[in-house]
Write a structure and sequence with these properties.
This protein has 7 helices and 7 strands; from the N terminus they run E-H-E-H-E-H-E-H-E-H-E-H-H-E. By secondary structure, it is an alpha/beta fold. Helix 1 packs across helix 7 (about 220-230), helix 3 (about 70-80) runs parallel beside helix 4 (about 105-135) and helix 4 runs parallel beside helix 5. The model has no long low-confidence stretch (mean pLDDT about 95). Bound molecules: nicotinamide-adenine-dinucleotide.
């Protein structure tokens, strides 16, 4: 079997109802994994087709990753339905807020941290505990960070968001070190500008963001899917604690 194959594996993607999370769910399914998604909104209509397009199993759970109760309840339901199987976890649920640093409030900042940092961290923790309990030989956690953890993204007014993504990227090697003894790998993906609802909300702040990328365009969600599938698969078996930046070269010039 190809080292890129995820056949027979079970994946969880948070924030999988649309945007990058939906693309990750589709990519993992295309490589053969069964995929469960957690989200606070109903999934995009195309989610329904994934199971039949790729002959795998999908499920959606309404879960707010920033609530311990909702996350733990949703995870227990997911595990009951999937016979306690989990090999891949992609905590992707995230939000952004655009305010000048001097105007950020505790409430706005708290919302960002609750979802982007705590939600991601405890999703990964639940997944890791279950991977250890079920003894998977293919445990892989792919944290969704951002190009915004590498650079001060132009005109975005998102200092708090950058901080949350920096937290994701710096917790990655620390968690990787602790989980290495269980054979579980932990890496992150840092997308650049991706065309999603999140970026639509601030596109007016960056009138010429295509020009920031070497290839002159912003990414579609499918453009960042491959890095996630690669990190989830045995093709990346020697990688852990690393970050892959998929940004059309924005951070490199
Ligand atoms: P999006 O807004 O299209 O999708 C985010 C998804 O997360 C939505 O389905 C939303 O309902 C879900 N979500 C939000 N709060 C949640 C919660 N409390 N519990 C469960 N689900 C919740 O955004 P996107 O652009 O697809 O972003 C996905 C991830 O990629 C985020 O972590 C984001 O920070 C990251 N990212 C996006 C870009 C980009 O340019 N779009 C760049 C770098 C990183």
């Amino acid at each position: 079997m190809s080292k890129f194959s995820l056949q027979g594996r079970t994946a969880l993607v948070t924030g999988g109802a649309r945007g990058c999370g939906l693309a990750f769910a589709r990519g993992l399914a295309e490589a053969g994994a069964n995929v469960a998604i957690f989200d606070v909104i109903d999934p995009d209509a195309t989610f329904e087709n994934i199971a039949k397009d790729f002959g795998i199993r999908t499920a959606f759970y309404k879960v707010d990753v920033s609530s311990q109760e909702s996350l733990e309840h949703g995870f227990a339901e997911f595990q009951k339905d999937f016979d306690n199987a989990i090999d891949i976890c992609v905590p992707c649920a995230g939000i952004n807020r655009h305010l000048p640093f001097l105007e950020f409030t505790y409430k706005e900042h708290h919302d960002l941290v609750s979802i982007n940092v705590l939600g991601l961290y405890f999703t990964a923790q639940l997944a890791a505990k279950q991977m250890i309990a079920n003894g998977t030989k293919h445990g892989s956690i792919v944290l969704v960070a951002s190009m915004a953890s590498h650079i001060a993204v132009r005109s975005q007014l998102c200092s708090a968001y950058c901080g949350t993504k920096g937290a994701v990227r710096s917790m990655c090697p620390a968690i990787a070190k602790e989980l290495a003894e269980y054979g579980i790998r932990v890496n992150s993906v840092s997308p650049g500008y991706v065309r999603t609802e999140m970026t639509a909300a601030f596109s007016h702040l960056i009138p010429s963001w295509e020009a920031d990328a070497m290839n002159g365009r912003i990414a579609e969600p499918e453009d960042i899917m491959g890095a996630c599938v690669f990190l989830a698969s045995d093709a990346s078996a020697y990688m852990t604690g690393q970050d892959i930046v998929v940004d059309g070269g924005v951070t490199r010039w």
